[in-house]
Write a structure and sequence with these properties.
The protein starts with 12 loop residues before the first strand and ends in a 7-residue tail after the last strand. The chain has one domain (13-63). The strands form 2 sheets. Strands 1-2-3-4 form a 4-stranded antiparallel beta sheet, with no helix packed on it. Helix content is 0%, strand content 43%. The chain has strands at 13-18, 29-34, 37-42, 48-49, 52-56, 59-63. A hairpin with a 2-residue loop joins strand 5 (52-56) and strand 6. The radius of gyration is 15 Å and the shape is globular. It binds zinc ion (ZN). The site of zinc ion has 8 residues, from loops.
């Protein structure tokens, strides 16, 4: 019997699109949060970053890394 599951309770994935949020080119940034760890990806310049997330009471604060990496 196969007991594997692709939707375990520990897996929490959230995705959103942040328009004009890329620190490098100003393009749209796709943000994915997996188990509390965020990864952002710009579809225009392909810049990938791991922004820091902070939960402040009823809102979420996102710190995008503005340093470009080649
Ligand atoms: Zn970009």
């Amino acid at each position: 019997m196969d007991t594997r599951s692709t939707n375990t309770p520990e897996t929490d994935i959230r995705e959103t699109l942040l328009p004009d949020a890329c620190a490098v080119c100003g393009g749209d940034v796709h943000l994915r949060v997996l188990n509390g760890k965020a990864t952002s990806y710009c579809g225009t310049c392909h810049h990938i970053a791991h922004p820091k997330l902070k939960v402040l009471h009823d809102r979420l604060e996102l710190a995008l890394d503005s340093t470009a990496k080649a």
